[in-house]
Amino acid sequence: MSERTPAHRLDAQGIDTGATIHWNLTTAPLVEQAIARGEGELAKDGPIVVKTGKHTGRSANDKFTVKDAETENTVWWGKSNKPMEPAAFAALKADFLAHLKSLDTLFVADLYGGSQPEHRVNVRVINEYAWHNLFIRTMLVRPETAELAGFVPEFTIIDLPSFRANPAKHGCRSETVIAVNLSEKLILIGGTEYGGEMKKSVFGLLNYLLPADGIMPMHCSANIGPKGDTAIFFGLSGTGKTTLSADPNRTLIGDDEHGWSDTAVFNFEGGCYAKMIRLSAESEPEIYATTRRFGTVLENVVMDPVTRELDLDDATLAENSRGAYPIDYIPNCSEKNMGPVPKNIVMLTADAFGVLPPIARLTPDQAMYHFLSGYTAKVAGTEIGVTEPEATFSTCFGAPFMPRHPSVYGNLLKERIAKGGVDCWLVNTGWTGGKYGTG
Q1: What residues are labeled active site?
Q2: Among 213, 348, 380, 408, which one has the highest count of C-beta atoms within 10 angstroms of its own C-beta?
Q3: Residue 324 — pLDDT band, cuts 50, 70, 90?
Q4: pTM for the whole thing?
């Protein structure tokens, strides 16, 4: 038995499979497997380039949470949190496990959601694709080898792109399904090849679990200034979180998902997931450099078939082309993915109508208003069907990922702003002096 193979295996979880299981492979063997299996190609400078088919963003309308005794009164049911009956999930799970049993190879990664040890969750991810396993291993926090043998999962994600859901039988909307069962601590993802579904499933999980412990989960990036001053940047996908957090003069904590505890701001992840479209060495040198490194996973980036040169300006495959890379590919990252509690909160909004000023200082009450209203514009490519910016209000700057009522997150933020005397700012990364297309 390899030292990276845990004692607690799939059969201990009631998962029966005769497949060859690759446990906790590191980057190079996962890249080898993905190439050998025809899942992707190597680009000229080393990253692996993959295509995600028809799903080039999250399939938000295909995500469901099981409504049962655990969740009935704790989940904020509505557009973002659609219910699934326990019986429908049971049928889906049975068919998922049967499909899993039919596969001859599986890739399993044991990982942490959360960088602060006392607030992290053990997550096991079971993948059909090698590149998906590489993706999630890149994005989550990677245990040390010595920690793997005794790893026991608290939550499990099974991601099978070749599975096709049956809406009539499984209580879902289409052949694509993301089903979250918080009681069984199981997440099933089927019918989509988009890697981001796994990442956001873990985010949603932590957004449900952590408030019960008084931890504020946030859809934000974070970095630290030379004087140890942490800043957090709230914002939806495409509003500039990743770009602003990668400031070469500040230490990066993370680009997308964080918790705010009594003692720290900590990254939920061990990697970054940056938009690649029209990325340039001049405007974003640190992120651009990751597109020239082995171990980076590039989704839907166009590549010359002969020279394997990347064309980051080409949106033929997707406006939402993405790159997943370990956080330490950014030279100035935090060693432990953590920093002190914040001194500044910046709320990013891509105003499509040119109404908001470029920058404004907010009172705590104004900050709460902007946090709870979450005005921005959905940017092309982050969701299926969005081709140009449209006004949206996403509560807590992350409604699709927030299972609990907004007041839970709002009250946590209000308490932490007051306790820390935090300065709050609104920054418009959209249009000023006129609406989209003219401003």
Answers
A1: 58, 200, 219, 237, 241-242, 256, 322
A2: 348
A3: very high
A4: 0.93
